[in-house]
Amino acid sequence: MGKVGIIGVGQSAFVRGYPGSIRELAFEGFKEGMQDAQITTKDIDASVICSAPEYDKQRSPAGVFAEYFGLTPQPTFYVETLCSSSSMGVRLAYSLIKAGLHDVIAVVGFQKMSEISSAESQERMGRGADIQWESPFGTMMPAYYAMYARAHMAKYGTTSDDLALIRVKAATYGQINEKAVYRKAVTFEMFSDPESPMSNPVASPLRVGDCCANADGSSCVIVANEEKAKALCKKPVWILGLGAASTAVNMAGRDMFTGLTVGEQAGEQAYKMAGVTAKDIDVAEVHDCFTIAEMMAYENLGFAKPGEGKELIKGKETYKEGSIPVNVDGGLLSKGHPIGATGGSQVRTIVLQLRGEAGEMQVKDPEIGLVHNIGGVGLYGNVTILGR
Amino acid sequence: MGKEKKKVDDRFKKFGTVTFTSITKINDFIDKLEQGKIMGTKCKECGLVFFPPRADCYQCFKSDMEWFEVTGKGKLISFSKLEFAPVGFGDDLPYAIALLDYGDYKVFGRIAGDVPEDEVEVGMEMVTVSNTLPSGQLNYVFQKA
Ligand SMILES: [Zn+2]
Predict the structure, then answer these.
(1) Domain match, B65 and B82 both
(2) Domains and CATH numbers, chain A
(3) How many other β-carbons are positioned within 10 Å of the β-carbon of residue A272?
(4) pLDDT exceeding 70 applies to what percent of chain A?
């Protein structure tokens, strides 16, 4: 069995209020992926469309997109695992190619969140939790992650200041990422300045500055078997390892509140499959929907021991020049988080890094990169390890 | 109840400020909640304990449950006070969601509105009590033990 490679990546700008329909939004990412791969629609023999469905009026967008992309009559289908949908799409593309059913697959993730209000959006995200037993209490994503933050603080002495440092890092790179929705600087001082929106409480102990920016956006990852990848692409990036896990949807069914079991388990699987350890990772994209989520990812992926994630960020080890650069594209916090597009965007960042094409965000000569993508409140986890 | 057989048993719609479920096989939970009891289920076949309650056991694939009451003190695992709320919950603000550990099971709910935030800390003991919302809807909340 041959390897499976990534031969093209694309992403739309992540924006507020995209001035177009979902098919047009998705086309932006798809077009860039195809142009990056320098192939035509004839080279693609299946498409996988990824998003969280509640935001759209269109049912079953896969068929609509396939037609708009010029990818009919090839098979197309839809994949959904909330915020990790497009990482799951890449996993499925990998398995379809390994099974020999297809040679080259376009994985397109998208989300147009701006058609509904922020409160409605929170309500929809809240319904990604247990609607029978938890949503009736008035839950929302920031409050769930805030519970993890509180538990992490209580057990390990992590502080709100430690979390603020993660946002400051994200904004450092959001400013130099032309595709980021939030391009402004965020300073540590803003978190204690009542005049700054960053300091406003959302769900204690998390503040506005701890939360990612909603955005509209799309992403594309073109996955190919070894033969096609070598024939079509000068610099294929290989999928070395894949991991995926799930857990109880309700908090009452879980045992760990200082980390996400799905991140840990998906990480272990991916490391094992790739034959590498955390020490071998040169650059990583982790799911920082909230600052605490990045902190937990450091620990769940083995970049730091449990409880020691704060030392990594205090020592600036996850900056571009540090020992393990993380989210040097601004992350979900500043680049933005268009649910279904996020995983593909993370993969794109790592592919560009491994090809040495990340511009101002480029980490020095990375060979192995990791993508950590979480769906819901640690409900689904995907980890993908990529190498040159 | 019970006389008109055709009537849909949608008792669960009484649960929470806004409910998203009305028909479930464990609708008796609502009757118990009205009586002030918070109940979980225990599999009669294999003894597995469930909270929140469920109708089916994944361990032995039997669907024969008995009710047990959530009693005594649980330890507060974590909590968060919300300053913003999803659509439909705005009138409840501010409120705190929380999780209690009872050992064999955990209970997710809200901290009672009259418990001051500065008296709440992770690890403290709390009890779960039934609660009627101003709208007449039912839920349960955590009080200081
Ligand atoms: Zn059983």
Answers:
(1) no
(2) 4-117+214-232 (3.40.47.10)
(3) 12
(4) 98
Q: Which residue range is the domain that position B106 belongs to?
A: 74-144
- Which residues in chain A are contacts of B74 at CB distance < 8 A? none
Q: What is the token pair recorded at B13? A: 């719609």
**Which residues on chain A place their C-beta less than 8 Å from a C-beta of chain B?**
119-120, 122-123, 126-127, 130-140, 142-144, 146-151, 154, 200-206, 250-254, 257
- Which residues from B are below 8 Å from A130, CB to CB? 52
Task: Look at residue B91 and tell me if it is in a domain.
Answer: yes
In 3D, which of A225, A221, A235 has the Cα closest to residue A47? Answer: A221
Kindly give the pairing relationship between strand A104-111 and strand A46-50. parallel
Smallest Cα distance from A256 to chain B, Å: 10
Residues with CB under 5 A from ligand 1 (ion): B 43, 45-46, 48, 57, 59-60
Instruction: Convert the pLDDT of each residue in A93-132 to its tens digit.
Output: 999 999 999 999 999 999 998 777 777 776 776 677 899 9
B49 Cα–ligand 1 center, Å: 9
B30 and B78 co-located in one domain: no
Look up the ipTM and state it.
0.95
Cα–Cα distance for residue pair A346/A360, rounded to 1 Å:
17
